[in-house]
Amino acid sequence: MSKFDNDKVMPRYFAIAVLLTLVGIAVIGKAAYIMTAEKQYWTDVASRLVRDSVSVKPNRGNILSCDGQLMASSIPEFKIYMDFQAGGLEKDTMWNDSVDLICEGLHRIFPAKSAKEFKRDLEKGHKKMARHWPIWHRRIDYGTYTEVKKLPVFRQSKYFGGFHAEEYNSRRRPFGSLAQRTVGDLFGSKDTARFGLELSYDSILRGTDGITHRRKVLNKFMNIPVTPPINGADIITTIDVSMQDLAERALIDELREVNGDMGVAILMEVKTGDVKAMVNMTRCADGEYREIMNNAISYRCEPGSVFKPASIMVALDDGVVDTSYVIHTGSGVMEMHGRFMKDHNWRRGGYQDINVARSLEVSSNIGVSYVIDHFYYEHPEKYVEGLYRTGIAENLDIPLVGYAPPIIRMPEKNKRGQWLNWSKTALAWMSIGYETQVAPINTVTFYNAIANDGKMMKPRFVTKVVKNGETLMEFPPVVLKEQICKPSTVRTLQTVLEHVVSQGLGKKAGSPLFKVAGKTGTAQVSKGAAGYRSGTVDYWLSFAGYFPADEPRYTCLVCIRKSGLPASGGGMSGLVFHHISEGVMARHLKLSIDDARDTTSVMVPDVKGGNVLAADYVLSRLGIKTEREWSGSYADGNPVWGKARRKADEVELSQMKTYGNTAPDVTGMGARDAVYMLESRGLKVRLHGRGKVKSQSYPAGKPIHKGAVCVLTME
């Protein structure tokens, strides 16, 4: 007989089984509810849970100019939030008492949003008892963050008041958009590099993440460092801020003058290959010019006549001609294998008989193409091999993403001796810069080699990596080719390129102060399958050269793309080259004041209006007499606004009356003082030109309306 009583035991087992089944169903049901209805809530909670190990971001390294000026640096930025569950009932009471003051304070700090809007938004978060409710939708800098932190409730600890922030590393460029495509930028939301040197040297600049453990002690979390973050190193670039600024202003002024679509300017140091300035301007939809693409390294196009020196270099180096070889160009039109080659002056009768040197000086298409076609037609591969020898087709392998190496095709035949990629006219047109694809950076590197007596240097953008004052890595100048041609060929081309500027088509690029050598280029831009003449003709205008020609220091290339006529490489791009070269060379002038001083005369400078107290201080230190009817000391730091008028042996400084609610008269002032006076009264200022203020669009004495624009014309 069984010792178990089934009538008593089985009902108990059944009851337990039913109970466990119901518990299991309840657990499954709750899990399903959490996975569906409460999924988003618990996802948000999980994202805020403190992990045992948290990565700590390092500080990103700086990018500096060649003279140590900051071009890109990281500063902290914050997104601010509110935890309405922190602090319990006591905080809730404080919040209700202070919410109006908080919203008024937020409106004062962020005027774009009214106090009512802030209150409505925050009350919505308070009603939901949200733990991570955004207070402001954008990142704010440290100064703004400290201002917000001073508001009621927000000044409490985050565990009681609930105010907390997420910190980000934000990239800032002190010089704004200067050299933007070269320096590069970051994706703001991800703090990752996008382009330029930021991307190329990202592993050096980024540093290494650290690790910290977070432990809860007495209801507070403590950070226990495990591995400290290693901050990124700084990189020293070759960019010269003043040269970059000069090149940008010169190029933009000419683009506006000729209504250009795009412009490129590259300035390179001859001996080292250091890129001192690289400008990439594209006209945007609003008519303004900005750096949106690095066309200097990526815009691969038919270079036009700036390619001709490479063709003549090949012919001179191979010994098939010399500069005295005469070409009969006739009236400026010559048939070449069924197509007509024309010179730019064919309507005026052409150049008739000219030698090789003169054909480069006046950029004769017939002169150059006849030489190459006549001597290399049977073996075009010899000509292309010569081009490769000159380095014009070299892959520069520069450390910037987006670089497009040149495309200069080598003639090929099939087994039956038929050309696969060649035509009868290919050689003639290739010799004058068509049927090739060359980026501006390759063109300027080629001309730099001519200036450097045949030694081709690799373009250098970064000289070294430093950290805490210590050099970690150096990037010395790299020689790509010791000699691109025979020394005699280089000397010949140097002389011819000087003549292009002194007595050829490049006169506008020259300077009366120093010798310039270079070559003009005006090429039609192909529009793909549509060809060169579909509607309005686009032109690629170039001037490539170096200065001073007798002792080269810098090589410069200027390219402009525009639609329609007039179009002149020498008259447009050459003019930009002229402004850049004279501006750069002006920095190298070293004059002694003793050599210039005439003991029989008094030197009285031309003084701008503005803070005449500062002007009086400087003039007194120079020993120049001033006439004034006001008092004050420069040491006090309070400006005295007025006008300055130069006399024979003194400067008259007169104080002017200023009224806070009307626009002051700023004519005759410098840009800094004029902008300060107008903007401190609530006007927005725009500048045109350089020098003194000649006129102001917002009349002096007119009542000021906050936010109105005043255009200052400088001269």
Helix segment tally: 21
- Structural class comes to alpha+beta
Cα-based radius of gyration, to the nearest Å: 36 Å
Tally of strands: 32
The averaged pLDDT comes out at 86
Shape: globular
Main sheet? 8 strands, mixed
Q: Hey, roughly how much beta strand do the residues contain?
A: 15-25%
Compute the separation of the termini in Å: 122 Å
Low confidence ranges: 591-601
Helix content: 25-40%
Structure, explained:
The chain is an alpha+beta fold. Helices cover 33% and strands 24% of the residues. The chain contains 21 helices and 32 strands. The strands form nine sheets. Strands 2, 3, 4, 5, 6, 11, 20 and 21 form an eight-stranded mixed β-sheet that branches. 37% of the residues are buried. Mean pLDDT is 86; it is low at 591-601.
In brief:
This protein is an alpha+beta fold and 715 residues long.
Secondary-structure map:
Elements: H1 6-36, H2 39-48, E1 53-56, E2 63-64, E3 70-82, H3 88-109, H4 115-128, E4 133-134, E5 140-141, H5 142-149, E6 163-172, H6 180-183, E7 185-187, E8 192-195, H7 196-200, H8 202-206, E9 210-217, E10 220-227, E11 234-237, H9 241-258, E12 262-269, E13 275-283, E14 289-290, H10 295-298, H11 308-318, E15 326-328, E16 333-336, E17 339-342, E18 353-355, H12 356-361, H13 365-376, H14 380-390, H15 426-430, H16 440-451, E19 456-457, E20 462-467, E21 470-474, E22 479-481, H17 487-503, E23 517-524, E24 538-547, E25 554-563, H18 569-586, H19 593-596, E26 610-611, H20 612-621, E27 625-628, E28 641-646, E29 650-655, H21 671-679, E30 684-688, E31 693-696, E32 709-714
Parallel strand pairs: 2-11, 27-29, 30-32
Antiparallel strand pairs: 1-9, 2-3, 3-4, 3-5, 3-6, 7-8, 9-10, 11-20, 12-13, 12-25, 13-14, 15-18, 16-17, 19-22, 20-21, 23-24, 24-25, 26-28, 28-29, 31-32
